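note to self — DONT lose this again. spent like an hour looking for the file last time. sequence + predicted structure for the chain T wanted, 206 res
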Amino acid sequence: MTIYYSLTFLLLAAEMVTFCLLVSPLPFTVRKKLFRFLSESPIIAKVAYGLKISFIFVGILFLDALQRMFRVTAETEMAKTGGQGMHDVRTETNFAARKFYAQRNTYLTGFCLFLSLVLTRTFSIILDLIHTQEEYAKLKKVVGAGAKGDQSKQIEELKKKLAASEAKDRDFANLKKQAAQQAAEFDRLASKYNEATGTVSDKKSD
């Protein structure tokens, strides 16, 4: 394996480790700090810029490996159909090895490019999820504070209504007491009046 395909393999291994780290079940606080560091760090931004350039070269390697794989496959099929030199074991082994290396390089570079797209999309989705969870937590706090404020207002209103009802009950009790006292006083005065009237009438009759 040449040096650039070895570097491509190392890049693929690093992508696999990064993907496992991104999808690992980390606590929300740790995940938020990690993704905030990855999205806001200038060092990570420079590394990402370098990786974008390297992926351009990986794309060129992918096109070259794909073209070479098609060419080797066509040469192998042509040799099989023509029957030229395919009776030699060394020739067959040479064609098989060339085909294997071409396919290996194609799959290596192709998976490296594909995993880079998966990593980019996964990172953006998880970052949006973290922002959504933060907004939900803030909204929940605001709604909770508003609900507490509404409950306190309702409690104050109920206290006022209860105080007004108790005041009305006291006024009604006082009014009832005054009415009873007035009725008793009226009965007393009526009795005295009747007694006085009866006495006067007796004197007149005499």
